Amino acid sequence: MRRALLVVAIALAGCTQPAPPVAPEKKAEAPKPVEYYGTTEPFAADAVYFVLTDRFVNGDKSNDHRDQGKGAALHTFDRPTPGAPKGKSDNVGYLGGDFRGLLDNAEYIKDMGFGAVWLTPIVDNPDEAFTGGDPVKWGGMWTDRGKTGYHGYWGVNFYKLDEHLPSDNLDFRGLTKGLKAHGMKTVLDIVLNHGSPAYTMPKQQPKYGKIYDKDGKLIADHMNLPPAKLDPGNPLNAFYNTKGGLAQLSDINENDPRVLEYFVGAYEQWIGQGADAFRVDTIGWMPHPFWHKFTTRIREKHPGFFMFGEAFDYDANKIAEHTLPENAGVSVLDFPLQKAMNETFGKPNAGFERIDQALYLTNGPYANPYDLMTFYDNHDMARMDATDDGFVDANNALFTLRGIPVIYYGSETGFERGTAEHAGNRNYYGQERIDAAADSRIYRQLRRIATLRAHTPALQRGLQVNLEMKGDRAAFYRVLEQGKTAQVALVLLNKGATPAAFDLRVQPGQWKSAFAGTTVDVAVGGSIATTVAPHDVAVFVLDAPVTDATLKTELDRGMSRARRHVAN
């Protein structure tokens, strides 16, 4: 019996499966590195200088076409605006600015600290002054009789270069290539909402109200008819809407299937010749689905192509609609901040809290507020009415706050400050003023702060955390911690007439005073104590990751709440 049990035991033992191998312990995944950034948009590195090309510099008089348009009512060169007060001037004719004048001064723009040039539309415009509408007058709005297309926004052939701009051996491709050689990108102003003025003329004028294709074939004609009298059954009329738009401008019919194809083809042509980005004129006048189709088509062939729209509206919620990916998915010009800038640095002299209200650093309506184009004046509004100190203060803020700065030509010297359209806003700048710019304190201080931004990644793309924004004082961080870059910039602004003392606790490390070139060694629990001169700025930079717990908490909050659609 005992032997039988032993046999059974041995037999059972032979059937036992070997124990499975012990699985190796899974290594815990390494935590993802902490990232802090406002935007990953490459274009954010480049502050933008905006020129109304015809009014910048006449570098080549041979393309002025001074005999264009016969007779007092039609000639296109040098048409003073009637009604100018003594000592003032304005002009609604061509004044000769061209690609040569721009390229000849590329180093002037680059040396100021800019990485991109935005120029007004380059497409063909009519060859006579407009005879319809209300007579242009000093300070008048929507008065176009006697005006020309010197500004470029009255396109008639969007595939053809306007004859006033190129020179021998310098077309648009040559301009963009030349700007790139100076280290600058080209932003092209594009128009899809409208063509040229189209009706109310005593008799039809050549090109007005017409659009031609790349082969010069007429594809649209308003026929000098008011919008309501256009015939949708006529292909030449169907390119336009039958409702009114801006002044007497021909209003493009976004529902005509030919329209999208025409403009995609035209603007891809200019990308092919070197355009690096688009500024989209009057984006608010056409519906979101149309813009979504257009931007999608452009980016299918040119992934990541940067575009920003002009929706002239001070309602942040309204202009933010264009930034959402389901709509155009573009940046926009930051009109709400522009209004705050004028109130803060112009004659109202509001406190920095007004700026704070317009930044929308968290819980705002924009897809990403850090991608917005920030500015204080342009060609469609009165130039900022400020003292030299006001311009200096505005530039110190513009080039350190979130967003991508844009400066309108001449503002670097306070040119025509306070003037509106048809009252001097778009006057000719000229080589003489450029050559004398270094005598201007506004210019010198702009160059100082713009150059700093151009060499400081945190000021270009960093997340912003405000410490103080009230009255004449502002203090805030810009923090960029991404990839191999770890940089903290502490910005201190004083727009007051007396020195401002700051004493702020910061994380330990070696902070560099950006302008003084000196370093401040801060120990644990230490601070940066400094006095900022009247109408000045101080920037301290720490090239190290953030370790301060309080700051990290605010940065985490900013990262989670800054962007409405996290697409970066």
- End-to-end C-alpha gap: 80 Å
CATH level-1 class of the largest domain? Alpha Beta
CATH topology of the largest domain: TIM Barrel
Q: Tell the overall outline.
A: globular
Structure description:
Helix 6 runs parallel beside helix 7. Strand 13, helix 11 and strand 14 form a beta-alpha-beta unit. The relative contact order is 0.11. The chain is of the alpha/beta class and 568 residues long. It has 15 helices and 22 strands.
Keywords:
568 residues; alpha/beta; TIM Barrel; Immunoglobulin-like; 2 domains; eight-stranded parallel beta sheet; six-stranded antiparallel beta sheet; 19% strand
Quick rundown:
The protein is α/β, with parallel strands linked by helices and 568 residues long.
